[in-house]
Amino acid sequence: MNKVWLVIQREYLSRVQKKSFLLATLLTPLIFPAIMGVFLWLATSDTDTDSLRIIEVVDENNMFFLESSDQYAFSFSRVDPEEGKRMVIDGERFGFLFIPKIELSQPTGITYFGEKNANMGLITLMESALKKRIEEQRLFQSGISPEVINAYRTDVSIRSITLDESGEEKITDATVNYTIGFLAGILIYVFIFLYGNQIMQGVIEEKSSRIIEILVSSIRPFQLMLGKIIGIGAVGLTQFLIWVVLIGTISSVVVGYFGMQMPQQQAFEMANADMGDMVVEQSGVQDLLQVISGIDFVQLVVTFTFYFLGGYLFYGAFFAAVGAAVDAPSEAQQFMFPVTIPLLIGYMGLFVFVLNDPNSQISFWLSIIPFTSPIGMMGRISYGVPFWELLLSMGLLVGGFFASTWLAAKIYRIGILVHGTKVSYKTLWRWLKSSH
Predict the structure, then answer these.
(1) In Å, how far are 61, 81, 138, 189 from 100, measured between CA atoms?
(2) Span 149-176, pLDDT tens digits
(3) Using CA of residue 263, residue 265, residue 266, residue 270, what is the dihedral sign?
(4) Where exactly are the transmembrane stretches of this chain (predicted)?
């Protein structure tokens, strides 16, 4: 075990002391706040009056009205359509909306002219305003006053409450659960691929440089493989924890620079505001706070760490075996297919099944089978998973790690010393059956 620990130390220190590791660890967290800062700067600069985009509107029905927004102002006139197009070409107007005489039952022929392609936001804004007005006119013609319809219209908001076995009620929010499951599943998928490839590249480099032949003279191949997998995994966990701290800190600074607040700060201040005003909004904030307080963040962090490490260790053994079986990265592609397919199944299953229906049978099996459970279970965990399912999934993942390590070791101990031989699946099968 002491030799394994020495390999872990070597793999860990040799990577964290590299300039490339320090640069990636320190610069990567700057990307997200930088992107956030650019978007916030663009959002604040778009509110200037100089950036207001004027759209000329000709309505031959004398019926429509479009309300201006922070970005777009609508100017109604009776200019000739050709004159409206000319105003766009000359830069006098950002766009020109022409509404000819239309039949309310089939409103066709409405056309927007612009020097630039119209964005989805602008088209949606105009379509929704015109649609609402046409619906009101059709109701009026059928003998129903639009005021009557508006008086009966109301928004419906469903409050989601989860009941436990004791009957205790807990407010939940599907959007929050979806977001947590989405981010956790994607992070695990990315990190397994990222650090698994690092294992494969490291093994190929040591094999091609013949350093491995010196190492195996003093340490068993299995111990070397295990130490390499754990050491690189520790590097990944260290980098991830640093990223979480730096991204959170720098993002708070960037948001504060623009005079804004992080969502949790806004929720805290609004929850502690005077109860005299904005009763409905404070009720929504209180519900949000109850949703957040109802999430077991300790369980979430512990579970994420377990599946992050468990999934990495499970697949890391296969990546190490692939690296030991080939002499160059280009030769590894043929053996990567059976390794990546289960990961891709878990990735696709996260979106198609788990996040949409975390309690379905297929979501259950995706979170139980070791090949997909690191991604599948993290997609379900925020929705609440029975303890026995979580325990079963963890137990099978641990068992899967030992099984994958045992299988990979049989390939590793032979392949690591084989040079210049074209390895095939038949060759790998022969190595697996070998008892030496």
Answers:
(1) 7, 10, 17, 53
(2) 777 777 766 666 655 566 565 555 667 7
(3) positive
(4) 21-43, 176-194, 214-234, 240-260, 297-315, 335-355, 362-381, 387-409
Predicted TM-score (pTM) of the model is 0.65
- DSSP lists the bridge partners of residue 97 as 57, 112
Among 223, 231, 236, 214, which residue's Cα sits nearest to residue 405? 223
Token pair 């997609």 is found at 379
User: What is the token pair recorded at 218?
Assistant: 């003093």
Residue keyed to tokens 């219209």? 153
Q: Over the stretch 238-295, which tens digit does the pLDDT of each residue have?
A: 887 887 787 767 766 655 655 544 444 444 444 454 444 444 444 455 555 555 555 6
Residue showing tokens 């040591």: 206
Rounded Cα distance, 373 and 350, in Å: 10
Beta-strand relationship, 160-163 and 169-172? antiparallel
- Share in percent of the chain as helix, strand, coil (round to 5): 70, 5, 25
> Which residues, in sequence order, are CB contacts of 260 under 8 Å at separation 6+?
40
> In Å, what is the CA distance from 262 to each residue of 176, 252, 255, 265, 274?
16, 7, 7, 5, 21
Cα–Cα distance, 240 to 29 (Å, whole number): 10
